[in-house]
Amino acid sequence: MKKNTNSFNIEKIAELISTDLKKRVMYYDENPQFQTKNFDLIKENNYLKIAIPKIMGGLEISLPSIIKSQIKIAQGDASTALGIGMHTIVCGFESENHLWPKQKRESIFKDIISNTTLINNIASEAELGSPKSGGIPQTKIFRDKNKLLRLKGKKNWATISTGLDHLIVYAYNNESRRLCRVLVNKHNEKIQINKQWNGLGMRSTESHEIIFNNVPIKKSDILYEHGQSKRHAKLPFNAWFPLIIGATSLGIAIEARDQLIKYLNSRQPTGYKKPVSTIPFIKHELGRIDSRIMISMNFLVSVSEAWDSNNDKDELIPYVIAAKRESTEAAVYITDSVMRLVGGIGLEKENQFERFFRDARSGLINPPIEARALETIAEHALQHPDNKFLI
């Protein structure tokens, strides 16, 4: 199934990957673990380098195509989609903004391409909440008694923790008294993974707690410090994160919708002369579902196209946030509607409907959460009362 990168059709590749993921999705949901077979498949198909620039050996796929492909993969397995999505977010955001030192960027991207390594940002802490809240992480960089730099602390919700190779850790540097991002090799012996993840949905995302037990680091491992230079005085908005989260949620919703239609067309109780899909009430509900998908899909793709082609990205921030919010809210609405329409079988583990219902709710807790999303959109409205609502 490996494809030639010279004629790389990401959406076709994503569709083939998605079809294969469906063979194992129920097993991985019932037996949470790092999905080795799924990620081997992704690696074999060169998917790790889709957001890396061509000049560095990557594929440099456009953001809209990545969003559409993310939706496809989420239709196959939401946990896998979230994991590869996090990797893609790191590569795409860095390719767009060049926040790391050039030499580090080249070496990390080269390692991803040559050795199919996985990377993710590790930022959340139980006490900290969202890093966007402005709190100081308890994970610290300090010098030990031998004047060597060390990293100490713990992070939670570290997606695909056991499968990662590179960690970009959000920490406080005691020396400089600045917040920073530091590159850490996940395979260091002083790193411990506390396998406590037991979530309602996204069961195989391996979103465990990672503990840093005085991990040795070099000064060159600090990718950047907040406010250290003009480039890092105000970090750019990361549109990749909300758009990929929105795409993941929408993929879950579309698959729930597709499975619903199969069920409605095949379900014919003894008291009915035709399948239940012919009942007007059922058609009304299905129409509402498809309307929400149409709105979310077109909104996500059009916003990603605007982000990809527009240099004045600040004006697009509320649209990115609104697109993520609409997609995640639509996924919750759709999977809830599907559960109501299929009735009692939706509660049965051997069917997929209850898994869609559980997985779809994960998008709600990914930033920006509902309250912050609406605040940001409202602030933009107050500053731009003449907004024409077009991108």
Structure description:
By secondary structure, this protein is an alpha+beta fold. It has three domains: 5-102, Butyryl-Coa Dehydrogenase, subunit A, domain 1 (Orthogonal Bundle); 122-225, Butyryl-CoA Dehydrogenase, subunit A, domain 2 (Beta Barrel); 240-383, Up-down Bundle (Butyryl-CoA Dehydrogenase, subunit A, domain 3), CATH 1.20.140.10. Helix content is 47%, strand content 13%. A hairpin with a 5-residue loop joins strand 2 and strand 3 (149-158). Helix 8 (280-309) packs antiparallel against helix 9 (317-342) and helix 9 packs across helix 12. It is globular and about 80 Å long.
The number of distinct helices, counting runs of at least 4 residues, comes to 12
**How many runs of DSSP E, i.e. beta strands?**
8
Q: How many structural domains in the coordinates?
A: 3
The residue fraction in helices comes out at 40-55%
Mean pLDDT, all residues: 95
* Rg for CA atoms: 22 Å
Taking the alpha carbons of the first and last residues, their distance comes to: 38 Å
Class from helix and strand fractions = alpha+beta
Q: What is the CATH homology-level superfamily of the largest domain?
A: Butyryl-CoA Dehydrogenase, subunit A, domain 3
Q: Short description, anyone?
A:
The protein is an alpha+beta fold and 391 residues long. Helices cover 47% and strands 13% of the residues. It is built from twelve helices and eight strands.
Secondary structure topology:
Layout: H1 10-21, H2 25-30, H3 36-44, H4 63-76, H5 78-97, H6 102-115, E1 119-122, E2 140-143, E3 149-158, E4 166-173, E5 178-185, E6 191-194, E7 208-216, E8 222-225, H7 240-266, H8 280-309, H9 317-342, H10 353-360, H11 362-365, H12 370-383
Parallel strand pairs: 1-4, 2-4
Antiparallel strand pairs: 2-3, 3-7, 4-5, 5-8, 6-7
